[in-house]
């Protein structure tokens, strides 16, 4: 999920692009982190709640419906598993932008947990891509479609019998309209569609008196996995059809496994190359990882995602922040990579 931001406008002082690894009490300046990649495993699970109908015991006698339950029940289903790369502060990559007169970085924008987002500009608002979640549907009150005869019946059995007859009457009405044989045929296609929709609604409400109702509600469960190297079948969570999504240590559920492998190894800069870079703003060159998620022996997610731990750190040269040049930099807070550099 996306983090909030705190824009830190530096006061009258100016800050240099040169920086050091942060140590408490070491100089003055702005402290910021580069991120490392955490994989957010999102399990979208559906809770299915079934309630028996008032006439469930008569479903077979009057409607020839078998296997209609007379007991309430709840079970869970996995609808979707999705994985996203998010940035978390890397405690080994905490830096300080130190005070210096020759260079300026007059505005630094950080996330709420201290990851650098932008220098001398404002990063664009991040889109929080959500999920289309199913919610329980509203159920019609079947009694408003019952005739006076049904409501005045002296027993539940008689009410069930008369309700079943009303269902058959509704079905017969739909058949007559479809064949064009109804006494009061709708005048046009729109009227026919409306009439059929109303009949369907009545039939469904009355049928639920026998079959009961089934409500489906989606919920999102998120877990973080932080790969420091290639991973093989790490348990991210567990799932039970009876209990839903569970923590890794709850053995009542079957494991949901995550595997990560470095898909595109990047060349590591040599010591000689590092010396040539000199001082400047540090940023990440993220690598990429093949991520797979499996459950019950089946692969339920596969994708290539940026993984900062599979990359390395580079430097924006100090000269970019000379007082004569207005340099603006936007970073990706999830990877620590440079998104855009402008100057004038």
Q: Can you offer a commentary on this structure?
A:
This protein has a domain at 53-77 and 136-216. It has helices at 59-63, 148-151, 156-179, 189-211, 271-277; strands at residues 5-9, 15-21, 29-51, 73-99, 107-111, 116-119, 213-225, 231-240, 244-246, 254-262, 280-295, 298-317, 327-331, 338-343. The chain is elongated. The protein is of the alpha+beta class and 344 residues long. The protein has five helices and 14 strands. The strands form three sheets. A five-stranded antiparallel β-sheet has the order 1-5-6-13-14, with no helix packed on it. Strands 9-8-10-11-12 form a five-stranded antiparallel β-sheet, with no helix packed on it.
Précis, in short:
With 344 residues, the protein is an alpha+beta fold. 18% of the residues lie in helices and 44% in strands.
Which properties best describe this structure?
344 residues; alpha+beta; five-stranded antiparallel sheet; 5 helices; disordered N terminus; signal; DUF4831; DUF4831 domain-containing protein
Low-confidence stretches: 1-19
Count of DSSP-assigned helices: 5
Beta content comes to 35-45%
Shape: elongated
What is the H/E order? EEEHEEEHHHEEEEHEEEE
Total strand segments: 14
The oligomeric state is: single chain
What's the N-to-C terminus distance? 34 Å
**Can you give the mean pLDDT?**
85
Structural class: alpha+beta
* Order of neighbouring strands in the sheet with most strands: 1-5-6-13-14
Helix content: 10-25%
Q: Major β-sheet, in short?
A: 5 strands, antiparallel
Radius of gyration: 32 Å
């Amino acid at each position: 999920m996306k983090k909030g931001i705190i824009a830190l406008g530096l006061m009258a002082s100016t800050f240099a692009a040169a920086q050091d690894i942060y140590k408490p009490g070491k100089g003055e300046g702005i402290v910021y982190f580069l991120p490392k990649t955490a994989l957010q495993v999102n399990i979208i699970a559906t809770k299915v709640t079934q309630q028996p109908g008032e006439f469930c015991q008569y479903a077979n006698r009057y409607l020839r419906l078998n296997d209609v339950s007379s007991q309430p029940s709840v079970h869970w289903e996995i609808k979707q598993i999705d994985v996203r790369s998010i940035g978390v502060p890397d405690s080994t990559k905490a830096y300080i932008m130190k005070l210096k007169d020759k260079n300026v970085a007059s505005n630094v924008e950080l996330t709420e947990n201290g990851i650098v987002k932008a220098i001398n500009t404002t990063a664009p608002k991040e889109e929080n891509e959500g999920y289309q979640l199913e919610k329980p549907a509203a159920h019609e009150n079947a009694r408003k479609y019952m005739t006076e005869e049904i409501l005045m019946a002296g027993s539940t059995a008689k009410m069930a019998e008369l309700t079943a007859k009303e269902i058959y009457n509704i079905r017969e009405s739909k058949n007559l309209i479809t064949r064009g044989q109804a006494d009061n045929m709708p005048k046009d296609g729109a009227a026919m569609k409306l009439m059929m929709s109303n009949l369907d609604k009545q039939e469904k409400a009355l049928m639920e008196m026998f079959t009961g109702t089934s409500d489906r509600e989606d919920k999102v469960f998120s877990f973080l996995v932080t790969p420091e190297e290639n991973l093989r079948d790490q348990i991210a969570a567990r799932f039970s059809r009876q209990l839903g999504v569970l923590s890794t240590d709850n053995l009542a559920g079957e494991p949901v496994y995550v595997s990560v492998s470095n898909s595109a190894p990047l060349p590591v800069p040599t010591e000689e190359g590092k010396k040539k870079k000199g001082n400047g703003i540090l940023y990440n060159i993220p690598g990429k990882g093949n991520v797979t998620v499996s459950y019950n022996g089946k692969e339920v997610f596969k994708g290539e995602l940026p993984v900062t731990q599979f990359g390395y750190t580079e430097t924006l040269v100090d000269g970019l922040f000379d007082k004569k040049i207005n340099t603006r930099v936007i970073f990706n807070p999830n990877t620590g990579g440079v998104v855009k550099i402008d100057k004038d």
